[in-house]
């Protein structure tokens, strides 16, 4: 018996970072099939390293319907190099659909969200551009479909240098985990990127 082998994803730290751009969206009622054309909106997407060769594609500071979230991560993405094209790019493939409960920014609601990424239309290009077609479903009946086009933000933007570590603020690593004793590196303190030396 022969089994198909999937091409191993390429680890591409160069594409990790923050992308800013615009997304157009369309709301679809799953029960009635009614479509409501959307409008353009500014969207920020973070691409980062995940667990066991996965890449995380996260929507930052994102609002869907009446709910706002700090972060909505598609955690099981893979990056596949596209060698048949003239420009170097990586296809974004979602291994398993998003399905999780997220707490809203105001901590008042826990909302179950589902989601998918259309891998035929989702690419990170070597020149720092990102095309991402994704959808989100909330309250089990309304799906928002989005088409995002954006550009990578320079890595050094918003990083401040400090020499001391005596400030009594909560410190997080770049994956959003709380850090009790930060070593050398880049951390998030009071919503800003800080370099500890």
Write the SSE topology.
Layout: E1 17-29, E2 35-49, E3 55-64, E4 67-82, E5 89-94, E6 98-103, E7 110-117, E8 123-125, E9 129-138, E10 142-152, E11 159-162, E12 171-172, E13 178-179, E14 185-189, E15 192-196
Parallel strand pairs: 11-15
Antiparallel strand pairs: 1-2, 1-10, 2-3, 3-4, 4-5, 5-8, 6-7, 7-9, 8-9, 9-10, 12-13, 12-14, 14-15
What would you say this structure looks like, in words?
There is one protein chain. The chain is mainly beta and 197 residues long. The chain is 0% helix and 59% strand. It has no helices and 15 strands. The protein has strands at residues 17-29, 35-49, 55-64, 67-82, 89-94, 98-103, 110-117, 123-125, 129-138, 142-152, 159-162, 171-172, 178-179, 185-189, 192-196. The strands form two sheets. An eight-stranded antiparallel beta barrel has the order 1-2-3-4-5-8-9-10. Strands 11-15-14-12-13 form a five-stranded mixed sheet, with no helix packed on it. Strand 2 and strand 3 (55-64) form a beta hairpin. The radius of gyration is 18 Å and the shape is globular.
Through-space gap between termini: 56 Å
SSE order, one letter for each helix or strand: EEEEEEEEEEEEEEE
Strand content: over 45%
Number of helices: 0
Q: Got a strand count?
A: 15
Average pLDDT level: 81
| Category from helices, strands and their pairing | mainly beta
Rg of Cα set: 18 Å
